[in-house]
Write a structure and sequence with these properties.
The protein has 8 helices and 4 strands, in the order ααααααβαβαββ.
Length: 254
C-alpha cells in the first residue's frame, strides 16, 4: 500500500487489522471503488494495476490487454503531445498502440508500438520541453459536444448493472429510447468489463446501477467528467482528472 502512496499499515506483519482495513478503504475511496475495506478481486486487481510506474515493464498491444497506471500515464503524455490515444483509461488498446507508433515514427524510431527504454527516453526528452497542452482527446470530445444536439436525440448512452437490476435497466432504457437516445444495455458483474464495453461502443454517457449489500436503497452512479462522458474505466488511475470521471460501479462482493 505504501508503494502507491496510501499510508502504510501499523498492524503487525501478516495481520489484517484496523490500520490495514483503513488503508484499504482509503485506496478504494481514491480509486472510486466501493469503500468496504474488503480486499476482494476488484480491489486486488486495482492494487496490482496501481503499482505499475511508467518504465517498469514493456508496454505493447496484446491479449488480454495490459492495464495499469503506467498505461494511463503513457496515454496522458502522448495525448498532451498531440498523439490521440483515445480516452485515458489505463488500457493499452488499438488507439494507444497506433498513437505510440505515430510518436515513434515522428521521432525517428522504429514504429513497432512497443514502449521500451529508447522510446521512453524520447518521450521524457520531448515532454520536458512541452508546456503541457490540452489533450487531443479532450479537444475532440469538446468539439463533438459543440456540434451535437442539445437534447438526448441521437445520444449514445450506456446503461449498466452488475446483477439483479435487469428490470430496472430495461425500464430506464425504454424511457431514454423514447426520448430519442441510442441506448446500449450492459450486464456484467465486473465493472472494468462494463467500462471497456461502454468505451468500445463510444458511449457519450454511462449510467450504472448496483445493489448495495449494506443498504436496501439503490444507488445510481453516473459518469460525468469529460465533456462527452469521459473515460468509463472503473479503475482508471487518473480518476477525477482531465478525460476521466471518478466513478466506479465495481464491487468485491458477488
Amino acid at each position: 500500500m505504501a508503494v502507491i502512496d496510501v499510508p502504510a499499515s501499523l498492524d503487525p506483519p501478516g495481520e489484517f487489522g484496523p490500520h490495514t482495513e483503513a488503508a484499504v478503504k482509503e485506496f478504494q475511496r481514491r480509486r472510486g471503488l466501493r469503500v468496504d475495506g474488503v480486499c476482494g478481486p476488484q480491489t486486488w486487481s486495482a492494487l496490482v494495476e496501481a503499482g505499475y510506474r511508467l518504465g517498469d515493464r514493456l508496454l505493447y498491444r496484446r491479449r488480454p490487454m495490459l492495464r495499469g497506471d503506467d498505461v494511463a500515464d503513457l496515454q496522458q503524455r502522448l495525448g498532451a503531445l498531440g498523439f490521440d490515444t483515445g480516452r485515458v483509461d489505463g488500457i493499452f488498446g488499438d488507439d494507444t498502440s497506433l498513437a505510440l507508433s505515430d510518436f515513434q515514427q515522428n521521432v525517428g524510431l522504429t514504429a513497432d508500438g512497443i514502449l521500451g527504454s529508447s522510446t521512453l527516453d524520447e518521450l521524457y526528452r520531448i515532454q520536458a520541453r512541452s508546456q503541457g497542452p490540452e489533450l487531443v482527446s479532450d479537444v475532440r470530445e469538446r468539439e463533438t459536444l459543440r456540434r451535437g444536439p442539445r437534447t438526448l436525440q441521437g445520444r449514445r448512452i450506456a446503461v449498466g448493472e452488475h446483477g439483479g437490476l435487469g428490470a430496472a435497466i430495461a425500464t430506464i432504457a425504454r424511457v431514454l429510447t423514447g426520448a430519442g437516445a441510442d441506448v446500449v444495455d450492459l450486464h456484467h458483474p465486473d465493472g472494468s468489463r462494463q467500462a471497456a464495453d461502454a468505451n468500445a461502443v463510444a458511449a457519450e454517457v454511462y449510467l450504472g446501477l448496483m445493489l448495495d449489500p449494506t443498504s436496501s436503497r439503490r444507488r445510481s452512479l453516473p459518469s460525468s467528467a469529460s465533456p462527452t462522458g469521459g473515460c468509463t474505466a472503473c479503475r482508471c488511475p487518473f480518476s477525477g482528472r482531465r478525460g476521466c470521471p471518478p466513478w466506479s460501479a465495481s464491487s468485491d462482493h458477488r
